[in-house]
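Anyone? Bumping this.
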Amino acid sequence: MIQKFDAIIVGAGPAGCACAFKLAQGGLSVLVIERGKFPGAKNMWGGAFFGPGLGELLPNFWSEAPVERYIARRKISLLSREDCLTVDFSSHKYSQSPYEGFILLRSKFDRWFANKVQEVGAIVASGLQADDVIRQDGKIVGIKAGSDQILADVVIACDGVNSILAQKAGLRGEIKPTEVKQGVKEVLRFSRKELEQRFNLTGDGGLSWEFVGACTGGLPGGGFIYTNKDSLSVGLVVQLNALAEKQVRATDLLEGFKQHPAIAGLLEGGKLIEYSGHLIPVSGIGMMPGLYANGFLVAGDAAALVIGTGLILEGANFAIASGIAAAETVMKAKEKNDFSAGSLAYYQKLLEKSFVLKDLKTFKKAPHFLENQRIYTIYPEFACNLAEKLFASDGKPRKRAWHILTESMKGRVSLSQVAQDIIKAKEAI
Amino acid sequence: MNQIRIEDKLAVNKYDIDRDVHIKFDESICRNCDRHPCLYICPAVCFKLGEGHIIFSYEGCLECGSCRIVCTKKAIDWRTPRPSFGICYEFG
């Protein structure tokens, strides 16, 4: 017998689960399929999550979700080879409900979210992979999964950055190496007490710490440390084409990063319990595929809905918001019983009205701007150099800050070049 | 802390290794490739250079898709392992 659902969602990540939750809550019959052994088995991220989108579906989700810690402090460091200049920020708002952000691990979080989806009546089938779409009269009417054929009024591809389904649906071509960053991460275990002492954490508060500069060997990208409950995540995000061109491996850069004097002592003695890797679509609106077709929608990383401005790299919140917008579109289409591309175009309108496409448009020049190597080489070095000289008390006559700055720039970068970069930064980020 | 070799990193991960190799590549294309970006972009270092040819071991694959994107010569037929097989993150 061939089954038919109102909606099939491919991929039980944040986009897929948000979409399924909303649809099932609205009374539609929903099947979520997930190729991993369980939701989250194939997924990783750095660890920081900003949750207004999820709060819309599950108010106070943090009280029951497997949150490692709420983010109590944020640090950003500029690294030269051996030195480190840090901005350390904590706000009283960070430690109060509704919290600004959380540190979560995907394997636990996705499983929890998928359970919530099942609680509202959707079916989540793990260990099932969509190999292709089924077409009938120019419309997508279901999916092929192994020897199974499953039909639905609409298929929503939430199958991540490598989205095979969006490709099969003809909405996107090949991804270019310049359009993605590679993330690699290690999870290191400590005792909870040890971790809290090392990072000055109290209660369930955690630290989100990002790095720019020597951690990526000067390649476009950055580093991160997030404190989990009794472990920490340390990793790097690096432009994929830069790894290929410079012939360096992200795993080797990560080993170098862990040896940096600013963090080596903090990581000492941590026991490696997992190593993971993943791609992040970072070219924003420039790489966004078509978002809809007859009987078909694309959400989350599959639609490249990720924003990177250098200071932030955020995808999960966008995934959830796009999943919710896809669900609202499908419910509206269901009322009219019209799942044509014309009807589903409402999805794009919703995203254009929300922060999702507004943010991507605001920062549309950011991906290109962030390819500027000076951001990862000369500027962090300047910053560290300037700090070192400003703080120096070496018995020699002191110089004014401006003099120190211009002196260290000599022969490396011109003032006009810096001015141009600042103007570009103003437009891009 | 001491540097960790890639083999030791992968050894702590949980995998359900399929009997079939999920990523295939066309060696005749690789032989004529002068850059071999696959050697550098795989986070699990699944691609290694043998004597004049590429050696690929699929067991440690993290299923990220980097090789598929970076091999612009289209030597790689990229697939994920069969459902439930392959990497199984416990933390992620």
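Late reply, but here is one note on the structure posted above: Chain A touches chain B through 59 residues (CB under 8 Å).
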